[in-house]
Amino acid sequence: MKETHWTSDVDPQTKAATYGISSLTDAELLALVIRNGTKEKNALDLATELLSGSEGFYALMEAEKEDFLAIEGIGQAKAFLLLAVQQIAKRAYTQQKLFSFPIESSKAAADYVMQEMRYAKQEYVVMLMLDTRLRVMAKEVLFIGTLDQSLYSTREIFMSALKHRAAQVILFHNHPSGDPSPSEMDIEVTKKTQEAGRLLDIPLSDHIIIGDYKYYSFREHGMLV
């Protein structure tokens, strides 16, 4: 080969064809995506460097374009390719057919948005709108805040719920710190939103705070009835 793509005698594509894609290591999988290296580093070297930290693919999912560009051998094209892989992974996890299954528990609701929200570096406020069978009618990003706070508007929340004729709603927001413990503001917002929902006959089924692969449910903690 003029430019070596791999460092092993059997390249990942041949290995996958022989033993199946699941036989590849993390670095080999990523090397298949990167495909080409440079004169100094082949694709497997680059993939290994990208995954060199203890967090592996998790760190890759959190990286930004500047993080990729800081690695010698990663230019604009490869950086955007890796960002595209990020988005595909997140959307594949969260894009589920509408009406596919009912949201019958706080855990099911948290799982529905976890992969999308757990990596966010700003606070996002997201709402799921449910029908009378607890199936998802729509999901909407309502607000995007700063690193440490979001601005809530119950008017905006229920305008969307009324537009979609939702039977009930579940509110989410993330804590970029990774700790989903509620703040005093979170508690006040929940009370305010719950009361507004009662007046409009669109109950707030739950308010869930998303952390780093963990969540806090106001309903599970007895703060919504």
Describe the structure.
With 225 residues, this protein is an alpha+beta fold. It is 42% helix and 15% strand. It has 9 helices and 5 strands; from the N terminus they run αααααααββαβαββ. It has helices at residues 12-19, 26-34, 43-50, 57-62, 65-69, 76-94, 106-117, 154-163, 184-200, and strands at residues 124-130, 136-144, 168-174, 204-210, 215-217. A hairpin with a 5-residue loop joins strand 1 (124-130) and strand 2. The radius of gyration is 22 Å and the shape is elongated. The model has no long low-confidence stretch (mean pLDDT 85).
Offer a few descriptive terms.
single chain, 225 residues, alpha+beta, 9 helices, 5 strands, 42% helix, elongated
Write the layout of secondary structure elements.
Elements: H1 12-19, H2 26-34, H3 43-50, H4 57-62, H5 65-69, H6 76-94, H7 106-117, E1 124-130, E2 136-144, H8 154-163, E3 168-174, H9 184-200, E4 204-210, E5 215-217
Parallel strand pairs: 3-4
Antiparallel strand pairs: 1-2, 1-3, 4-5
